[in-house]
Design a protein that fits this description.
Blueprint lengths: L8 E6 L5 H15 L3 E6 L14 E4 L8 H15 L4 E5 L1 H13 L5 E5 L10 H15 L2 E4 L2 H10 L7 E3 L11 H11 L7 E5 L8 H10 L7 E5 L5 H10 L6 E5 L4 H7 L2 E4 L8 H8 L4 E4 L4 H4 L7 E3 L4 H13 L1 H16 L4 H16 L10
Helix pairs in contact: 1-14, 2-3, 3-4, 4-5, 6-9, 7-8, 7-12, 10-13
Length: about 375
């Protein structure tokens, strides 16, 4: 009689300190733990462990550098090797985390590596396309399975490594579909001290160039008229000072408010007359999922996975990236045309229903782990 197999040891790795990737990683923990897996998280110390320690699992602080820097890179590889030693499966989230985990997993002889590609690889620059192709080819060599959160990312991954195209899987990241209650939305407006009827535009995301909040600030300066909106941005990040300086230079101190990281961001989304996502690139942003689930009219850049989420313009207005004039015009249309806003809100709810929520996504990820391992995460053999 053979004994029961031990529980699978799963290590989740991310290089991000805030934002949708961390929230996605946190959302996987309950399902994996319920299935009996031993789950551990390797992430920057600033994440607080993404809920790992609260869930009773191990947290390994690892700082994966954004730019090539030998000392931090060596330190990150050392820390990752320690975290991954003895893992049955490693799931890295993001390209940087995938490349670092791939190097550490090889030296630790980790049997299975999965990488979820949440976003474009590099921010900008003349060498961006070539660098992205190299990164995708490296991930194709290192990872047994690559999960892409949108079709456009999957196309890039397949095109960069055609021989490994079969290892690319499209799996949109799901958000919690439950919107804030009306009382919570009213409380959010009250916190802002807005006069009745004053339009509110909300955006959510990490304060960094990718998110295009500088474009939103420029667009706000062009939103004039009898009742210009107040624009609220929920999020924190390295671009805060530049945004504050630009807001001050444009005299928008009363109209653009940076609220920092907010646990009640959903309440501000629900309170919005329009939700805006001016990103320069995106994968499958959770904040946009939440805006759709709240039935908010959306104005967003036509980049990455956003058009797919908005059913290619049916569930929101799409504008070119880095075009503050087009952004201001589209937001103005939503705020001035009640019928358009109501139509977009209805379409948003329909679009949200077509996308998986966080619990469904977690089950799909856990199923994939069990398929790759050939057994139940809790140790029982697969039936």
């Amino acid at each position: 009689m053979t004994g029961q197999a031990r529980s699978a040891r799963i290590v989740l790795v991310t290089a991000q300190t805030t934002g949708g990737i961390g929230r996605h990683v946190s959302s996987l923990l309950p399902e994996l733990l319920n299935r009996g897996a031993r789950v551990e998280v390797a992430a920057p110390r600033a994440t607080g462990g993404l809920g790992a320690e609260a869930a009773g699992t191990a947290f390994w602080p690892v700082e994966i550098p954004r730019l090539p820097s030998p000392v931090p890179a060596v330190s990150a590889l050392r820390d990752l090797k320690r975290a991954l030693d003895g893992a049955d499966l490693v799931h890295a989230h993001g390209v940087r985390a995938g490349l670092a985990a791939g190097a550490a997993a090889r030296s630790d002889a980790v049997p299975h590596l999965i990488v979820t590609i949440h976003n474009a690889v590099f921010e900008s620059g003349s060498t961006r396309r070539g660098a992205e192709a190299v990164a995708h080819r490296m991930l194709a060599l290192l990872a047994e399975q690559r999960i892409c959160v949108s079709e456009d990312l999957a196309r890039a991954a397949r095109a960069a490594a055609p021989a490994k195209a079969g290892s690319v899987l499209v799996m949109p990241v799901g958000a919690d579909p439950t919107p804030a209650e009306p009382a919570e939305a009213a409380a959010a407006r009250a916190q802002l001290g807005l006069e009745p009827g004053l339009p509110l535009v909300v955006s959510v995301g990490r304060l960094e160039p990718q998110k295009g909040f500088d474009i939103l600030v420029e667009a706000t300066a062009r939103m004039n008229g009898s009742s210009p909106p107040v624009v609220v941005i929920c999020g924190e990040g390295p671009a805060r000072k530049d945004l504050e300086d630009r807001i001050r230079a444009l005299g928008l101190g009363e109209r653009v408010r940076l609220l920092g990281n907010r646990n009640d961001a959903k309440a501000f989304i629900a309170a919005a007359d329009a939700f805006c996502m001016p990103s320069r690139w995106e994968g499958s942003p959770l904040a946009l999922h939440e805006a759709l689930a709240a039935g908010r009219p959306v104005v967003a850049s036509a980049v990455g996975g956003i058009p797919e989420l908005l059913t290619f313009g049916q569930a929101g207005l799409l504008v070119p990236p880095e075009d503050p004039g087009a952004l201001a015009s589209a937001v103005g249309r939503v705020l001035s045309d009640r019928r358009l806003a109501e139509h977009l809100g209805v379409q948003a709810l329909e679009a949200a229903e077509a996308w998986p929520d966080a619990a469904i996504t977690a089950r799909k990820v856990a199923d994939l782990y069990e398929q790759i391992l050939g057994r139940r995460l809790g140790g029982d053999p697969r039936e």
